[in-house]
Design goal:
This protein is α/β, with parallel strands linked by helices and 521 residues long. The strands form 3 sheets. The chain has a 15-stranded mixed beta sheet that branches. The chain is elongated, with a radius of gyration of 29 Å. It starts with a strand and ends in a 23-residue tail after the last helix. The relative contact order is 0.09.
Amino acid sequence: MARKNGERIPKLRLRLATPGDVPALVELTARIYTPENGYSAEMLRSQQTHFPQGQFVVEYEGKVVGYCATFRIDEAAALAPHTWVQITAGGMASRHKPDGNWLYGIEVVVHPDYRRMRIGQRLYQARKRLCMDLKLRGIVFGGRIPGLARNIQRYGSAEGYVQAVQAGRRRDLTLSFQLSNDFEVIGLLRNYVPADHESLGYAVHLAWRNPLLLDQPDIPSTASPRQLPTTVRVASVQYLQRRIASFEEFATQVEYFTDIAADYNADFVVFPELITLQLLSIENTELPATRVIRRLSQYTPQVKELFGRLAVHYNINIVAGTHPTEQDNGDIHNVCYICLRDGSIHEREKLHPTPSERITWNISGGDSAATVPTDCGPIGVMICYDSEFPEVARHLVDQGALILFVPFCTDVREGYLRVRYCAQARAVENQCYVVLSGNVGNLPGVNNFDIQYGQSCILTPSDFPFARDGIAADSTPNSETVLFADLHLESLASARNAGAVQNLKDRRFDLYETRWLPRPR
């Protein structure tokens, strides 16, 4: 490091280009492309005039050794077939649109004597930061393929050569570098630069999509005209089951926790599976298990009214645990009521009753798993045992769910851990958030509901943007409490588009698929 006036001056610096850099850039591009084909002073000044914040240089010990030029353009022009001269106006960047939603890359050059210092990578990173800061959709450009002319006979066509590079069977000096920087091939551009004989005039049409945008193809957006929030605050209630004397007492306890979540400005509060079995302690009479469940189902109108009213009154979306509900055909289903703050109520049924539920309570499974549209985007609900079937979570995420809620009810630690471990797996494999809410405490005398073991938690994918252990919030086992976490949807977008692993993108649809049967009429 050199020193000046007591300050440490870095040897290598990336900064915006200035008019004073023009002579050095003329010399640099002439070194790369020959004086006849390099950039003129007029072209360089024009680029800086039209879009000064999009022109970068890398300086090493006072010498300009790298250059990157960009401008903004609309999506239709950026993604349509074009030549370099057409889209860049001959390198002048005069097609710059101040409101363009894509960043177009005119040029990246690095002095040949400094090519092992990751200067090109620094320039690409500067472009990406600019794109994200401006909230543009992405970066697009035509990339050279200098190995094409030497290998065209071996691969038969430009398309065949590019496919070989993509598959890793061939390394191309330029294209391989761009692919390693998360650019994707969206096509081939013919006659892009006819004078580029090494590339036979071709360029690869490349794009990098802004990972902070939530409406990229692998992250479906909500159908609502409202833009998704960047952060969603969720609250998970670890609910203590205790004897009560009336429905009003149950309503008071539920409202207390809803009020707490609303006071902390939560967007969602989730309650445990089978929370309403507490109502069976009111009568405190011994009945056969199947009759008990049907008796409980009589509370369905009151339960829906309670949670629906609280959602509107406290301006919060409520995932209201589950309540055994008698169907029109006489079957009992374990139903989760999702009560939104706009007053709408949605029902989602448990698909996989446990053996205990089937045998003791004669509960039947539902037959569909659809997302619920909310003001925070689509959400999914997996009720306890459902979380142990990966097909359910994948189906919900494929519909656009970013957050999966898991109301659960487990009696012993072994059962709880099955749900916990599977929920964590669902978060990793689907790159989504998973929120668990369980019961604790005891209800002696309530058939098949004597004891509870619970440790509610809020889980994340396992990657750099998230908590170290993939746990946004955790609770003390078997203690009544409320968990809070801010779930950053931008982090999901970043992980899905540019994470260390990209589970959703990397699925092998050529080898396997999961198909859901049409819902019975």
